[in-house]
Write a structure and sequence with these properties.
The complex is a heterodimer of chains A (271) and B (348). With 271 residues, chain A is an all-alpha fold. Chain A has eleven helices and no strands. Chain B has twelve helices and two strands, in the order αααββααααααααα.
Chain lengths: 271, 348
């Protein structure tokens, strides 16, 4: 009886996921064609058109975000694992990172709007990249720390014993050993911010035309999906499904990679 | 907190150092005698202390981010903070035209949609966690936990898209009429029914927080020592009694923590909710009526907020959301930590 309930619960949970995937593939694949990747959005009411500007815009935003979030996150992870292990300060940093992870993304968006958009008097790709970058920091820091903790002590000792300076030992021995794990952690953070819409609403804003300038508003895939989903045209709805399929494909690939690396234990070779 | 940095004795580049510039660092408990010996030699070099400070600086930047968010939100919501004070959260009039702002409908909407989501999600999430840790065949376990992780990785806007075109029609045509017939007498499910509204928001939120709650609950349940299970079974308990007394009882603090963490996520969830809740700043008894949450009103109205007071009101809502989610998350983390401490951590 009780086992039956648990099985039923599992089925109920898996059902929406399966439904979402089937709908995405079914409705998305039928509108996915070359135009989607190469054309600008068509004028209202016309068929055809694509999301090329949104794809490029997302790429610009995510590059900027990674340039901000990855170095800071990895450095914070190095501090937590290599220098601050067991100290009060590192416990507080770790705790704050976890709490920061739970702050709603729209709040981050408003804060960066107040910080960058208001003084600059203009929505910009730069502000969008900063928001996403900030959101990457806690995830990257925590995964980096966990991956570095898996590196055996003997490797650090061997490096130090050979007279390698501590900072080089950290960078080219410890961090390098944990690299596959650190990279997958970064990809996890990347996949998370790739789908973020709320923080971009008031920072990157969206843009119907080509733009790669950091000082101009820029389009992003999730923003475009949001606008099209709420639009009144069937053509827009089809494009929204296609855009979601592309976004999900990106995320599924990174999550699968993360899972492969963490369960297969790429780090085992180092032990 | 140890921040001892020694003055550099030799200004030579670090690479020429015989042992390598090693700043005295905190030695972890597992450190061997070799490491202790090396660390105690405590040589000095500019490169090493610079590197160490740089890493520390990046770690501290996490505090800076939190402080920055707080100060920006407070400074930009001054107008309404000064004008309405605490009454801001008690007033139910949301009238941008006359610059009269009360956030009560949004506080209500956030609370009700989140509670609805918890009511729907918690029993299912615990069921899944029990199934995965206690009775699932090994081969299926990996696949199912992968699926739940995937569910957590789907962007909010995609959930929203799916909700608009699949979930809302399904609710409108099949589920809502049934609820009106069965539970209409409570007044909670009353026509008119447009499909979109508080109930649809609650359902999509439940789907979204399920994976978070179930994966953390699973983690907490895995942390319960096997000896507990064996002891209960040895006393003649059935498998279900073993799960109830040996596992769920021991893991209850952590399970509560994971539920609160799911609540934190539900409180701040924006896009999917904004797309299906119907954006209406009203408090109605019927769950089928359109409503709005704190996050959804920011998403839907900030772009059209034309004057400073309107913008300040929305930023004050963001500030309240920030403070509430911080408190909820801190509480939840402390509970989860209390249980899983000692077992290797895992980023959820």
């Amino acid at each position: 009886m009780a086992s039956g309930l648990a099985v039923l619960a599992t089925i109920l949970v898996i059902a929406p996921l399966v439904a979402i995937f089937i709908d995405l593939v079914y409705k998305g694949a039928s509108s996915l064609n070359l135009n989607f990747f190469t054309k600008l959005p068509a004028p209202v009411g016309e068929n055809g058109g694509g999301m090329a500007n949104a794809i490029v815009g997302s790429a610009v935003l995510l590059t900027l975000a990674s340039a901000i979030g990855v170095p800071i996150g990895i450095a914070a992870g190095i501090y937590l694992s290599e220098y601050g292990r067991g100290t009060k300060l590192s416990n507080v940093v770790r705790f704050t990172a976890d709490v920061l992870n739970g702050v709603p993304s729209i709040v981050m968006g408003i804060a960066v709007y107040a910080l960058i958009v208001v003084p600059e008097k203009s929505f910009s790709a730069f502000a969008g990249g900063v928001v996403l970058g900030i959101m990457m920091v806690p995830t990257v820091a925590r995964t980096t720390e966990e991956m570095l903790l898996m590196v055996p002590h003997s490797i650090r000792e061997a490096a130090l014993g050979l007279g390698v300076p501590a900072w080089r030992s950290v960078l080219s021995i410890t961090l390098r050993t944990a690299m596959p794990g650190v990279i997958t952690g970064c990809m996890l953070a990347f996949a998370r911010v790739a789908g973020e819409t709320a923080p971009l609403l008031f920072t990157a804003l969206g843009n119907d035309f080509w733009s790669t300038s950091l000082r101009q508003p820029i389009e992003a895939l999730p923003l475009q999906i949001y606008v099209y989903a709420l639009g009144a045209y069937d053509e827009w709805h089809r494009l929204a499904w296609a855009g979601s399929l592309v976004l999900i494909a990106l995320i599924v690939v990174s999550v699968s990679l993360v899972r492969y690396v963490t369960t297969r234990g790429v780090l085992k070779g180092a032990a | 907190m140890i921040l001892r940095i020694q003055e550099p004795r030799t200004p030579k580049p670090a690479d020429d150092e015989p042992i390598g510039g090693l700043v005295p660092v905190v030695v972890s408990p597992q450190a061997s005698t070799v490491r202790t010996f090396l660390v105690s030699r405590g040589s000095s070099s500019i490169a090493d202390s610079t590197f160490r400070w740089l890493m520390l600086l990046c770690a501290l930047s996490i505090f800076a981010i939190v402080a920055l968010i707080a100060t920006e939100l407070v400074t930009h919501s001054q107008i309404t903070l000064a004008k309405f004070g605490w009454k801001f959260f008690l007033g139910s009039a949301w009238d941008p035209v006359n610059a009269n702002f009360g956030a009560l409908p949004f506080v209500y909407g956030t609370l009700v949609s989140s509670i609805l989501a918890l009511i729907l999600a918690v029993p299912l999430a615990i069921g899944v966690a029990v199934f995965l840790t206690e009775m699932c065949p090994r081969a299926l376990r990996g696949f199912l936990s992968f699926m739940t992780e995937l569910l957590a990785a789907i962007p909010s806007v995609v959930y929203g898209l799916w909700a608009i075109f699949v979930l809302v029609p399904l609710l409108r045509e099949h589920v809502d009429p049934l609820l009106i017939r069965l539970l209409g007498w409570t007044g909670l499910f009353a026509p008119p029914d447009f499909g979109i509204g508080m109930f649809a928001a609650g359902v999509i939120l439940a789907i979204m927080i399920l994976p978070i709650i179930s994966s953390l609950t699973r983690e907490v349940m895995t942390a319960v020592p096997h000896s507990q299970r064996e002891a209960v079974l040895a006393l003649g308990a059935t498998r279900w009694e073993m799960i109830r007394m040996g596992v769920l009882r021991n893991a209850r603090i952590g399970i509560v923590g994971s539920i609160i963490l799911g609540l934190g996520r539900a409180l701040g969830e924006t896009m999917a909710v904004a797309m299906v809740i119907g954006s209406s700043p009203t408090i109605s008894k019927s769950l089928l009526a359109p409503a709005a949450t704190m996050a959804s009103v920011i998403a839907n109205e900030f772009a059209e907020a034309s004057d400073d007071t309107y913008r300040s009101a929305l930023i004050e809502i963001a500030l309240a959301l920030f403070l509430v989610t911080i408190v909820v998350n801190m509480f939840a983390r402390l509970l989860v930590w209390a249980v899983t401490r000692g077992t290797p951590a895992r980023v959820a």
